[in-house]
Amino acid sequence: MTALDLDRFPRVRLAHLPTPLEPLERLSAHLGGPRIYVKRDDCTGLAFGGNKTRKLEFLLGDALGKGADTVITCGGVQSNHTRQTAAAAARLGLACHLVQQEPEPWHDPDYGDSGNQFLGRLFGAELHSVPTEADRSAGMERVAGELRARGGKPYIIPGGGSNAIGGLGYAGCAIEIVEQAGAMDLAVDCIVLPSGGGGTQGGLVAGLAALGSGIRAIGIDIDAEGEAVADRVRGVAAGTAGLLGVRDRVADDAVAVNDDYAGEAYGKPTPGMIEAVTLLARLEGLVLDPVYTGKAIAGLIDLARSGAFGTDDTVVFIHTGGTPALFAYRGAFAGL
């Protein structure tokens, strides 16, 4: 066991943990190295799984500890975070309000009604639409004010659950990876993951630093704004490390974000993503999503092909889930 103790923080158990760490043997052979493993955070269990569930365990633990009866969060129409938040609220008997906007430049006929959007409604969340250019945080505060005026006790969760408390979930993921790798006699050289809101990578960086693992984490920007993503990751890493009491262990160069694979904009398909999602489906039977994991694994594949990793390196890819959104992007795969 590690010395990193997360039990001192308020938490509700929502996820199926630990998630599996599995070899992608056919992909590794196809690329001629490195050895690639996948951390299956698409298997966290709640509402088709995904990375947000780890964060919600701590965020909703904090919410319940503060007496909240309602949670409010935000995201796009096909947000994986809003889907998992709505499901977690339903399980805990909390009301849920979702502030949604449509920044994604994608207009598939299925986009507005299927995938995560359908699931959010199915879980009973109340949806609030705001214009593309609107400030979602202001929208959440407005909804919270209305609820407080009626005697409610709302708790606001930032988009993606990306703050210091949410980052604790990925400090926990760092523990799992280190322990699983040790049990499998693996020396992990690098972890690759999609990065946008900063909460997943920031929490992971804080956890790896707290453990003194020496493993580097590379975030693949999916927002098409690499510097802003890196800044968000640094903010969450610092905040989560502060909660853990290890702020001084997070090195200045611990945050690495590669912005070569996002394409034109968040949520807009790229040829590399389509190739990568199709390749993983046909080599490994592994379903990825078009917004996050598809672009991130496209980055990993291209980095491997370009020699960024040694052929004997061991790379862990974090599958952050998001597969319900794949059905909203059916038109991007029309050539299959």
Keywords:
alpha/beta; Rossmann fold; 336 residues; 10 helices
Write up what this structure looks like.
The protein has 336 residues and is α/β, with parallel strands linked by helices. It has two domains: 21-50 and 166-333, Rossmann fold (3-Layer(aba) Sandwich); 52-161, Rossmann fold, CATH 3.40.50.1100. Helices cover 40% and strands 15% of the residues. The chain is built from ten helices and ten strands. It has helices spanning 25-31, 52-65, 80-92, 115-122, 136-149, 164-183, 199-211, 226-244, 271-284, 293-305; strands spanning 21-23, 35-40, 70-76, 95-101, 126-129, 154-156, 190-195, 216-221, 256-258, 314-319. It has a six-stranded mixed β-sheet, with helices on both faces. α6 (164-183) packs across α8 (226-244).
SSE pattern: EHEHEHEHEHEHEHEHEHHE
Residues in helix, %: 40-55%
Largest pleated sheet? 6 strands, mixed
Number of domains: 2
- Structural class of the secondary elements? alpha/beta
CATH topology of the largest domain: Rossmann fold
CATH class placement of the largest domain: Alpha Beta
Count of DSSP E strands?
A: 10
Low-confidence stretches: none
Indicate the mean pLDDT. Answer: 94
What is the approximate shape? Answer: globular
Question: Rg to the nearest angstrom?
Answer: 19 Å
- Sheet with most strands: strand arrangement: 1-2-10-7-8-9
Strand content: 15-25%
Number of helices: 10
Under the CATH scheme, the architecture of the largest domain is: 3-Layer(aba) Sandwich
N-end to C-end Cα span:
46 Å
Summarize the structure.
This protein has 336 residues and is of the alpha/beta class.
